[in-house]
């Protein structure tokens, strides 16, 4: 796994710039492997990026929708054509297994194709007026310069779904990706440029979020952010004085309920994928497995065997089912939660420690605790790693009460063969998304995605809902005088 590191520059006003302080990324699968070299933009460069986005806004916001659609479609074509190469860089830098990384790149390509269509279906309406000789029309105008701040866990899909939507509706963008995974953001910006996006419409700045984001935010008209709830709350406070439009996709502590009548094998599959898939590093991942007592022991037995059998390994090793934890900070956090669970007296039935897979990486065995209670730290806070606990309950009502007893409300799931139990759970779940006999993670781009506060704020992303955030309403009354 050697070779020359990928070199990713910043893109400001159509120029690829290698000034700024150099920094490197290393593969979490093999810490001796440097994946990329990047350049942390200076505050002055951030200002230049914001000014470029402001200058480009007038022409782009008035650009022909066919032009926008063509650029988005071509970007999608490029991402799909290069999915193997982009996926490989993603897998090396983030640590998710190659199949998932290629799949995520394909998803990003499809997102661009979807928004190529949305650019043409730009919303708007013309209505009769209550007054004779008048008419009313409702237009959806671009918001302006959109600051896009994205995390490391979906380094191409999340930038794609924010940027594709922003551009479709005539906004310009500044992208500030996670410092752990800037590679895909560079490749995405290159794809947009190759597809014909004019200079300044998308600007990319790498570097310290603490230094750059407040500066960029002060010059932006909107912020779309995906990350932790605490970082989101902080950004919301920063945006308050200027009342800058803010969209936040934040943490989850997603319950998966398994009832006595569930199809047991399906429930085990759903739990396994939703909880440990992508090393548990998804805000939509299941982390509280709430199981009714009739099926509890059988479920735990089957699930434990499957969790123990999961093959953890290098992201590029075809045999791997789960890659490493993405970075040292996240690994330390995962281990801290394992310790909290042990201190609370939970019973460890799988994993619980780092493992040696023959590379110097952040490898943590998929971890499962049983005998946990909903009021324990393990079940209160987002872990964002391959660590989860089972909570035993008596029946559906206790399962619903337990699922609801949580500050976060992103996704929730239930495994049952009872239509009425599923419907009862669906109605009572406070989460923005409910999955029935399906993992809590794994979302589709043509429908709204988002949680309710404090898991989300400012409206959903993707699907038809994307237009709500990336446009501003204007209602026009015309007295044309024609009776
Ligand atoms: C998915 O579940 O397919 O950061 C995507 C996250 C989410 C994306 C989840 N914003 O995990």
Write a structural description.
The chain has 483 residues and is of the alpha/beta class. The chain has two domains: 6-250 and 454-475, 3-Layer(aba) Sandwich (Aldehyde Dehydrogenase, Chain A, domain 1), CATH 3.40.605.10; 254-436, 3-Layer(aba) Sandwich (Aldehyde Dehydrogenase, Chain A, domain 2), CATH 3.40.309.10. The protein has helices at residues 43-61, 65-81, 83-94, 98-120, 157-168, 183-194, 209-219, 229-239, 264-276, 293-309, 328-343, 377-380, 396-404, 419-428, 466-470, and strands spanning 6-8, 10-12, 15-17, 21-27, 30-40, 124-128, 134-142, 145-149, 172-176, 202-204, 222-226, 245-249, 254-258, 286-292, 347-350, 367-370, 387-393, 411-415, 433-436, 456-457, 471-479. It has a seven-stranded mixed β-sheet with strand order 15-16-17-14-13-18-19, with helices on both faces. The relative contact order is 0.14. Bound molecules: 2-aminohexanedioic acid.
Per-chain topology:
Elements: E1 6-8, E2 10-12, E3 15-17, E4 21-27, E5 30-40, H1 43-61, H2 65-81, H3 83-94, H4 98-120, E6 124-128, E7 134-142, E8 145-149, H5 157-168, E9 172-176, H6 183-194, E10 202-204, H7 209-219, E11 222-226, H8 229-239, E12 245-249, E13 254-258, H9 264-276, E14 286-292, H10 293-309, H11 328-343, E15 347-350, E16 367-370, H12 377-380, E17 387-393, H13 396-404, E18 411-415, H14 419-428, E19 433-436, E20 456-457, H15 466-470, E21 471-479
Parallel strand pairs: 1-5, 8-9, 8-11, 9-10, 11-12, 13-14, 13-18, 14-17, 16-17, 18-19
Antiparallel strand pairs: 2-3, 4-5, 6-7, 7-21, 12-20, 15-16
């Amino acid at each position: 796994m050697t070779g020359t590191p990928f070199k990713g520059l910043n893109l400001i006003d159509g120029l690829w710039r290698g000034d700024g302080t150099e920094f490197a990324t290393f593969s979490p699968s093999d810490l001796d492997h440097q994946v990329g070299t990047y350049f942390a933009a200076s505050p002055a460069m951030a200002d230049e990026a914001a000014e470029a986005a402001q200058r480009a806004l007038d022409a782009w916001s008035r650009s022909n929708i066919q032009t926008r659609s063509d650029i988005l479609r071509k970007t999608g074509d490029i991402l799909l054509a290069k999915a193997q190469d982009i996926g490989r860089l993603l897998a090396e830098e983030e640590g998710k297994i190659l199949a998932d990384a290629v799949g995520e790149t394909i998803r990003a390509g499809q997102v661009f194709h979807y928004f190529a269509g949305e650019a043409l279906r730009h919303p708007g309406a013309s209505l009769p007026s209550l007054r004779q000789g008048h008419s009313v029309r409702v237009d959806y105008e671009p918001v302006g310069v959109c600051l896009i701040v994205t995390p490391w866990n979906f380094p191409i899909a999340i930038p794609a779904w924010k940027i594709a939507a922003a551009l479709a509706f005539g906004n310009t963008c500044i992208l500030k990706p996670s410092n752990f995974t800037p590679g895909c953001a560079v490749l995405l910006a290159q794809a947009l440029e190759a597809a014909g996006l004019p200079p300044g419409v998308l600007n990319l700045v790498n570097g310290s979020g603490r230094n750059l984001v407040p500066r960029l935010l002060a010059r932006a008209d909107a912020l779309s952010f995906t990350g932790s709830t605490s970082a989101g709350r902080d950004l919301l406070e920063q945006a308050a004085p200027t009342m800058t439009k803010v969209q936040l996709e934040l943490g989850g502590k997603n319950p998966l309920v398994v009832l006595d009548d569930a199809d047991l094998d399906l429930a085990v599959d759903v739990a396994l994928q939703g909880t440990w898939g992508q090393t548990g590093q998804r805000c939509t991942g299941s982390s509280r497995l709430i199981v009714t007592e009739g099926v509890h022991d059988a479920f735990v037995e089957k699930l434990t065997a499957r969790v123990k059998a999961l093959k953890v390994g290098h992201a590029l090793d075809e045999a791997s089912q789960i890659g490493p934890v993405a970075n040292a900070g996240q690994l330390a956090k995962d281990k801290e939660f394992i310790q909290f669970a042990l201190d609370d007296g939970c019973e460890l039935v799988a994993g619980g420690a780092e493992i040696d897979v023959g590379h110097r990486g952040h490898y943590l065995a998929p971890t499962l605790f049983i005998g946990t209670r909903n009021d324990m730290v393990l079940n209160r806070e987002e872990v964002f790693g391959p660590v989860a606990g089972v909570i035993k309950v008596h029946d559906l009502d206790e399962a619903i009460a337990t699922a609801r007893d949580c500050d976060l409300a992103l996704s929730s799931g239930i495994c049952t063969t009872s239509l009425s139990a599923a419907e009862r759970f669906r109605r009572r779940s406070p989460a923005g998304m409910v999955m029935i006999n399906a993992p809590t993670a794994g979302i589709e781009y043509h429908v709204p995605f988002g949680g309710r506060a404090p898991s989300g704020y400012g409206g959903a992303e993707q699907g038809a809902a994307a237009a709500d955030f990336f446009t501003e309403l204007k209602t026009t009354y015309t007295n044309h005088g024609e009776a």
